Amino acid sequence: MAPSLRDHLLASLALLYRRWATARARDGVGAVLRAARSTMRRKRYCLLATVADGVAHARVLEPLPPDDDFSVWLGTSGGSRKVEQLRKNPAATLAYEDDARAACAVLVGRAEIVEDAAERRRRFKPFWRAFWPEGPEGGDFVLVRFRPERIEVWDARRHVTPAPFGKRSAMVARGPDGAWRAA
Fold it and tell me: Which of 14, 18, 91, 173 has CA atoms 20 to 30 A from the CA of 53?
């Protein structure tokens, strides 16, 4: 069956877009980190994935904005499955997705449970009282501090679209000295 004129035009437009986007692609460390931070700050929620019993477990959480070093803080219940899983295996992934801007940021790293009272007070969001009426001093509220070791980004609006176009994300990894490097 021969392709319709519509299919032929769409295929031609797709190839033109690919050439245009590829010519403008940015995948340097700075571009990747700026795109990641922008996506992370824009999104109210992220997906936290943990591993337990050889199976990935994912859930939606409301993170705090990323720290300068890209650490992400999350509030949760000390008795939750995620806390139990992270205590056994701190490997975790955070994913932020922004359909409106054709962007996503995936952070792979390790998480720790933080129960320090001063830190809990400092990071507690007022609206979280809906979940923890006793506030940050309540016995069920803990923090998760996620520290990324690798960041993967795809961001069409910022042209962070490395070759081969559409088939991989731009990636940076934290070196032994703590500096981010292309990966």
Answer: 173
Peptide bond into 176 cis (omega under 30): no
* Start-to-end CA span in the chain (Å): 44
Residues 10-51 have pLDDT tens digits of: 888 888 877 777 767 677 999 999 999 999 999 999 999 999
Strands (E) in the chain, as ranges, are 46-52, 55-61, 72-77, 91-98, 103-114, 141-155, 170-174, 180-182
Contact 97, 104 (CB under 8 A): yes
pLDDT in tens, 122-173: 999 999 999 999 999 998 999 999 999 999 999 988 889 877 777 889 999 9
Domain residue ranges of the chain, discontinuous segments joined by +: 5-182
DSSP 146-161: EEEEEEEEEETTTTB-
CATH topology of domain 5-182: Pnp Oxidase; Chain A (2.30.110)
- Residue matched to tokens 């700050």: 41
The two tokens of residue 61 are 């959480």
Neighbours of 27 (CB within 10 A): 19
Q: How far is CA 20 from CA 24, 85, 164, 182, in A?
A: 7, 45, 13, 23
